[in-house]
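Table S5 (text form). Sequence records supplied for joint modeling of the four-component complex.
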Amino acid sequence: MNIYDVSRKAGVSIATVSRVINGNSNVTEKTKEKVLKVIEDYGYTPNAFARGLGLNSMKTVGIMCADSSDPFLASAIYYLEGDLRSNGYDSLLCCTGYEVDVREKYLDLLLSKRTDAIILVGSNFVEGSKEKNQYIIDASQRVPIAIVNGALDGNNIYSTLCDDYNGVYGAVNKLKESGCSKILYLYNSKSYSGIKKLSGYLAAMGMDPKEPTEGNDYVRFFNGDINEVKDYLTTLHNNGLEFDAIVTADDNLAIGAIKYAKACNIKVPEQLSIIGYNNSLIAECSDPELTSVDNKLEAVCSNCVSTLMGVFAEQEVPLKTVFSAEIIIRETTRF
Amino acid sequence: MNIYDVSRKAGVSIATVSRVINGNSNVTEKTKEKVLKVIEDYGYTPNAFARGLGLNSMKTVGIMCADSSDPFLASAIYYLEGDLRSNGYDSLLCCTGYEVDVREKYLDLLLSKRTDAIILVGSNFVEGSKEKNQYIIDASQRVPIAIVNGALDGNNIYSTLCDDYNGVYGAVNKLKESGCSKILYLYNSKSYSGIKKLSGYLAAMGMDPKEPTEGNDYVRFFNGDINEVKDYLTTLHNNGLEFDAIVTADDNLAIGAIKYAKACNIKVPEQLSIIGYNNSLIAECSDPELTSVDNKLEAVCSNCVSTLMGVFAEQEVPLKTVFSAEIIIRETTRF
DNA sequence: TTGTAGGCGTTATCAG
DNA sequence: CTGATAACGCCTACAA
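The corresponding structure-token record, covering 670 residues in total, follows.
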């Protein structure tokens, strides 16, 4: 059943059927009803491919992320999908992992499907070196690119993110105000926002963000799991390094810190304060419940989608939008 | 730049270009190279809409789930997307929430996009009454439907799931073997698998699964959050109900149970054993770490996709595949 | 091995 | 207000 069949049954031309389908006003109420009845009776659905061919769009947006099962990214996807759908757009999901080569290949794949835009979720999409970001810049000449939680300069690249620098800066400061002075920082990503967070910590601690952190026992990069964090902290502790607070770039790492405290019989928050980042589900599941920095993911996603809608409507939209973080106080801090 | 432009630049016909693109063998190596060079030089990408129109497929599968930020569903989506992609299929994501009306509407939307198949993730898609499932049956006459973690009878409906009945049955039995006798069961879904799990519990406890559970203090339905579970259990405890083990239909509920034990100074697992379900991330984040029933999600998803590929290839495939659950032992049980 | 021509189902532009 | 017709870009018999 196609538009010709409908037009025949209704005794009108396909042009009229098309007008009815697309809510074009220039149709008599009478013929409109006639057509609508046929459509209803025979259960006709317009062919989306044909429509896509004609309009050069299937109202679809590609969403790329490293790993959709990561709680933070999963939430982002959920928000984005919902917002896109309420604007009449479908979401094509693509999980890329963390390697640039793979990402480049997948982005090409998405491009070849002619999505109306592509959303990159997670600041890990923005690499340190220009060359590694070139593929994104290139893509932006074909479709609008939106970045959630990261930023990249470019003509057709729209970044929405949270001010992670001040997020960590504020967290460290609150710890200091509550009496902590030896504050450890653990992080697991050197992405755009990863670097911002680290800088926030260093600045709040009065260190120079330009200095290398290699020799600094209070700053540590991880790419392992929860138990590695626990083991590492235990080692530090046994080696006699003193610390009364831990700030982490991610709630997962903070869980490791809690496990360490438990294993070494250290009281939280009396002897050790802990602050995580992302305010994810696990912050509420842990015991004690984790104080965490909320990076306003829902607002960021919502802004990202509305920016994109603005682009589609050829309105003037900002290239970069920044929200500010908020500390959600639970049980691992003394404030 | 379209196929005509390429054919002109390469001095061949569009048919030849098409053959080269689609890897058709009947092309001289020489002309093939000629065409390939033009494609490379001018950066030509075939138009997916036109191709879709001709082939009546854009190699896309719709994935529907209640909420992609739910850890369990997020994992499923991750596995499915990966498996589909390695088979050359894209994933169109659609989060529906839990209402049948909305789901029906969204399914129609997906259908109108002419996806090659639709995957329903989560047993909550299968309702108790036939009428409420009718829209799925109807859809299955248009495209193959796959159900992850649930089952529905139908000609073109392919179900892959875990044996949740025996998952819970086994968990309860292990508790009994380890000396528990007063075992509480908490659940939060009356979906297909929700009912199977409950039956497993009742059977293991020697109760009749057909009997209503209304008056039974040991069985409780929840649709609230972690803290409600904690409060409920505290009330039970204060009212003098004795229990030495809790089995839950979901890891989240089990976290509530752990929180209750902590609040009431009950030792886990010495005084109270707890077993969750799904073996999700939070099972490892909690303290003590949660013993949980693993329902083999990765295997289920992988099977779901390969079944679908079998359907596409018009092979003979099973309508229903069942995996068996496995108890992952951690710290909340005495075995 | 290569080319020609018709079909896929819309939308949109003109006439009328 | 309605209808005829030309795109849109690709695939694929069928012919050469």
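Note: Chain A has a mean pLDDT of 94.
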